[in-house]
Amino acid sequence: MDLVPALEEPLKKVLGPATAKVMAEHLGLHTVGDLLHHYPRRYEERGQLTHLADLPMDEHVTVVAQVADARLHSFASAKAPRGKGQRLEVTITDGSGRLQLVFFGAGVHKPHKELLPGTRAMFAGKVSVFNRRLQLAHPAYELLKGDAEEAVDTWAGALIPMYPATAKLESWKVGKAVQTVLPSAQEALDPLPDSLREGRGLVSLPEALLKIHRPHTKADIAAARDRLKWDEAFVLQVALARRRYADAQLPAVPRSAAPDGLLAAFDDRLPFTLTEGQQKVSREIFDDLATDHPMHRLLQGEVGSGKTMVALRAMLAVVDAGGQAAMLAPTEVLAQQHHRSVTEMMGELAEGGMLGGTEHATKVVLLTGSMGAAARRQALLDLVTGEAGIVIGTHALIEDKVQFHDLGLVVVDEQHRFGVEQRDALRGKGKQPPHLLVMTATPIPRTVAMTVFGDLDTSVLDQLPAGRSPIASHVVPASDKPHFLARTWERVREEVSQGHQAYVVCPRIGDEEDDPRAAKKKSPEDDAEKRPPLAVLDMAAQLAGGPLQGLKVEVLHGRMQPDDKDAVMRRFAAGETDVLVATTVIEVGVNVPNATVMVILDADRFGVSQLHQLRGRVGRGSAPGLCLLVSEMPEASPARQRLNAVAATLDGFELSRIDLEQRREGDVLGQAQSGARTSLRVLAVIEDEEIIAEAREEAAALVAADPDLTGLPGLRTALDALLDEEREQYLEKG
Predict the structure, then answer these.
(1) Residue 713: which of 352, 194, 47, 262 has the closest Cα?
(2) Cys-Cys with 352: which of 83, 362, 425, 642 at CB 3.0–4.6 Å?
(3) How far apart are CA 346 and CA 352, in angstroms?
(4) How far is CA 502 from CA 242, 467, 497, 577, in A?
(5) Interval 96-136: pLDDT, tens
(6) pLDDT in tens, 190-223
(7) CA gap 455, 144 in Å, rounded
């Protein structure tokens, strides 16, 4: 929250161009305010040193320790053939363990003079192994002694702040830079209203900044963090509350279903009863549609909980009321799939204007980028005349050419794949703002929903419809137990022999150019990481010629022509293909009830929620589903623990919490596809659930009383800083 001119001062004026350049390029810090909001990650205590015993490999670390001994060795090398090479070995200790430091060549002179036994210092460098011992080669160091005045000032206080740093800029250099700008903290404008701050016993913003960067006690740190968490939660919730307030002022056409219209005719046709959850959520949506300002509702439901049915009933209600409904899908495969399932569910009700259509019927059209010119022209004509009540499409729906007769409702499927501009463009096609229903099958913990989708009302579908079968999930440790992998392919053959079908999912397509990045290892966890991920085209050939020989194997991936993709999906849906080897294009919305088994290869390359999504493609019929997560990762690795978590529960909300805890939030507003720096520095979305909920209430009350925030210049400035332009647009268009 870069708050006032003093805090907007560019760092290059204050710190010098070289340091400012590294801060801008490596830490994204440009102004004094940015640096003041670059908080320490942790604090070292003088008397209680980092555990050398716990040092992570290959990471840049900063440790505080004491020199135990230092020895200078001479050696012969190509550069110093007469034994003139010099190597300084320094052993440091912190009571928990010992660590060797090594300096070579001309670099030995300064440390040889300074790093005498008994000296305390901070050391920073990359941990490596030499002769089976951990070492730091040529670490940067800063002596901790009380004689030089600067050192006394810089390290005053018992707690040493450790900053998020980079190889180019050690933690203590960041710390020194912070000390340089810390006096400016006095000028920080406070975004919290006095009444709120005093009512909750929070310290002022200048005091919080001082305490987080130069704490004397642990209580200082706690007081500063409590205060700064409130800033982040409150400013964000005010931005969302203003958005909700502005939406409530917009006009919209109320749309209520006719008592004996299209929706009633559709409900009469249904061969099953809706679940309680579907009925409850439908009521919430119908209440919203009947009001004269636009609905903004997020519908989240487990994979297979019947969201499409709820969305279709909402669309039919709008058509009943004389409007049109548009459903936006992220991919052509999914748009075609939705079109197929909607027309099947509606039967003759989808044949408006055709022979065989009933009196209440409407037309359901598909609009995608790859349609032929004639079909496209007809679809556009049906939309502009109002002949088509429902249109399902990809972002082709957003193009300027597409005109609606009277757009009343926009349904967005899997919103996280959509750019904000796209949703906004579609909303702009109504005579008045249309109602908006956003659907996601990725369960979102309550706090994230409040933070990311805080301007939407939320409905949750958590019951599965009757007739859905349970899905068993197992991890297949391919390298520890190769016979388990062989058994995997036997299981696929068994399912196929019983008349069922299978998916095999791979992380990569396999027709890429040799991309050096594809082969680059991501983490040093294991050799499994060093090979490129398995590819659809390679695996399909291997399986068809090997363990699945004799079965009908086809491939599906995102770079195929749309017609080819649709043809493959149709053959699979019709049961003509036994095994579909695919990328994650099948992740959302693909519905083939006869598919009972899914094998995910290199499952450790996928995220938790993605694995849960993929798994939801099986067990959609009456036969039980089976999901096998194949991985070469070793038993103790974090990747395997993640897979075990997925195998252990089918509860998507539980998994989304695990996923979030493992990934950390990153930038929760990053859903904005915004390249800006993270807005959450101390607020943890899951741990700080109470603060977020309270901040939401406070923000709603404040905005209702004073929508323009007239009496709160500090809050307005903080909002401007949070909502740099990209975010402002994100929230505007959400």
Answers:
(1) 194
(2) 362
(3) 11
(4) 48, 20, 11, 9
(5) 788 899 998 888 888 989 899 988 888 877 788 887 788 88
(6) 899 999 999 999 999 999 999 999 898 889 999 9
(7) 50
What end-to-end distance do the CA atoms of the chain give, in Å?
22
Share of the chain above pLDDT 70, in %: 84
Estimate the crossing angle of helix 307-320 against helix 276-289, to 10 degrees: 30
- As a whole number of Å, the CA-based R_g of the chain is 30
Written as one letter, the residue type at 531 is R
Beta-carbon count within 10 A of 327 CB: 25
Average confidence score pLDDT of the chain: 82
Locus of tokens 């703002």: 433
Neighbours of 372 (CB within 10 A): 9
pLDDT of residue 678: 45
Rounded distance between C-alpha atoms, residue 210 and residue 160, angstroms: 14
Q: In which residue are the tokens 């009633």 written?
A: 264
Report yes or no: 472 and 626 within 8 Å, Cβ to Cβ: yes
Instruction: Look up residue 212 and give its two tokens.
Output: 């987080």
Round to whole Å and give the CA distance between 91 and 139: 12
- Strands 471-477 and 625-631 turn out to be parallel
- Alpha-carbon gap, residue 584 to 696, rounded angstroms: 36
pLDDT per residue as tens digits for the range 594-635: 999 999 999 998 888 788 888 888 888 788 899 999 998 888
**What's the token pair of residue 157?**
């206080």
Closest C-alpha to 190, from 231, 232, 234: 231
Q: ∠ at Cα 444 (440, 450), nearest 5°? A: 110
- CA quadruple 681, 685, 687, 693: dihedral positive or negative? positive
pLDDT at 78: 66
CB of 580 closer than 8 Å to CB of 502: yes
Alpha helices in 214-306 (DSSP H): 218-249, 262-269, 276-289
pLDDT at residue 698, rounded to an integer: 93
Are 182 and 210 in contact by the 8 Å Cβ rule? The answer is yes
Opening angle at CA 694, ends 461 and 295, nearest 5: 45
Q: Tell me the two tokens of residue 663.
A: 């990934």
Distance CA 396, CA 412 (A): 13
Give the angle subtended at the CA of 588 by the CAs of 586 and 593, to the nearest 5°: 75
Instruction: Give the separation between CA 349 and CA 361, rounded to whole angstroms.
Output: 4
The secondary structure of 120-157 as a DSSP string is: EEEEEEEEEEETTEEEEES-EEEE--SSSHHHHHHT-S
Cα(449)–Cα(456) distance, integer angstroms: 9
How far apart (Å, rounded) are the C-alpha atoms in residues 116 and 106?
Answer: 18
Average pLDDT over residues 359-381: 90
Question: Residue-wise over 674-707: b if at least 16 C-beta within 10 A, else e?
Answer: bebeebbbbbbbbebeebbebbbebbbebbeeee
> Which segments of 340-487 are extended strands (E)?
363-367, 388-393, 407-413, 435-440, 457-461, 471-477
Q: DSSP for 564-606?
A: HHHHHHHHHHTT--SEEEE-GGGSSS---TTEEEEEETTGGGS
Residue 671 has pLDDT above 60, yes or no: no
Spell out the SS3 assignment of 431-448.
Answer: CCCCEEEEEECCCCCHHH
pLDDT digits 0-9 by tens, 224-267: 999 999 998 999 899 889 888 888 888 889 999 888 889 999 99
Residues in the chain, total: 734
Paired residues of 197 in beta bridges: none
* Alpha-carbon gap, residue 386 to 408, rounded angstroms: 12
**What DSSP element (H or E) covers 110?**
helix 109-114
Q: Which residues pair with 631 in a beta bridge?
A: 477
